[in-house]
Amino acid sequence: MSSKELLEKIISLLSADDFFRDFKFRKSDCSFISKNGGLKNIVEIQHWTKYDELVLYPSFCAHFDVLLNWFKKYSFKTIQDQKVAYSFGFTSRMLGYNSSYYEFGLDGNDFNSKFDSFKKELIECSNWVFTNYATLDLAYQQEIIPLLNGEKEMPDGGIEWAFIDLTLCRIVSPQNYDVFKKMILERIEFLHGRNEPNLAHYYDNLDEIISYMESLSVEELEKCKL
């Protein structure tokens, strides 16, 4: 069996499962997507062939339009790339599993047991993410509260997460916004000192970007479209 045929078989079996009945499959990036208003739940399955195996690398993501769409005027990414971006994303390993990779032999040996294990973990991870990030309030509890309490560190790379987190805090907990903004700006300066490459796209316009977000009401943030 070719890797293409094997992938199609796996996607077909997943599509037929009750868990994915409310999801649409997007072939362009091999993703299952469920949309509810301004929230999209996404299971993306990256894949490649390694020797005689098909390797699958799923991620589990929540996309909140209100946290992302306002940023379009500053993003260096294409609109299409912004449409498939996520607010919060996880791999299986990040959720406590031994690995984020799943390997299926092209010879089909032991396919059923491997697929059952893959589907089980896929559904468990999806359920956790889509339950704990079902609303902005829940996302705030997962993302911002631990940072404010010093229970976890901010990312040591990238930068767009900072704009997402700032927007989330401003919407859900404006009383904590000034404190959290100070923490974010300190982290940005730390990343700038390390020459974080992604930050270079935005650093000179940082004040303008944040001021623009702060100038928008929640209603205006919700109306921003890609």
Give the helices and strands, then pairings:
Blueprint: H1 3-15, E1 24-26, E2 31-36, E3 39-50, E4 53-64, H2 65-68, H3 79-83, E5 88-91, E6 102-105, H4 111-132, H5 136-148, H6 160-172, H7 177-193, H8 206-215, H9 218-223
Antiparallel strand pairs: 1-2, 2-3, 3-4, 4-5, 4-6
Helix pairs in contact: 5-6, 6-7
Task: Walk me through what this model shows.
Helices cover 46% and strands 18% of the residues. The radius of gyration is 19 Å and the shape is elongated. It has helices at residues 3-15, 65-68, 79-83, 111-132, 136-148, 160-172, 177-193, 206-215, 218-223, and strands at residues 24-26, 31-36, 39-50, 53-64, 88-91, 102-105. It has 9 helices and 6 strands. Strand 2 and strand 3 (39-50) form a beta hairpin. With 226 residues, the chain is an alpha+beta fold. Helix 5 (136-148) packs across helix 6 (160-172) and helix 6 (160-172) runs antiparallel to helix 7. It starts with a helix and ends with a helix. Strands 1, 2, 3, 4, 5 and 6 form a 6-stranded antiparallel beta sheet that branches.
Number of domains: 2
Q: Can you count the beta strands?
A: 6
Percent helix range = 40-55%
Mean pLDDT: 94
Rough outline: elongated
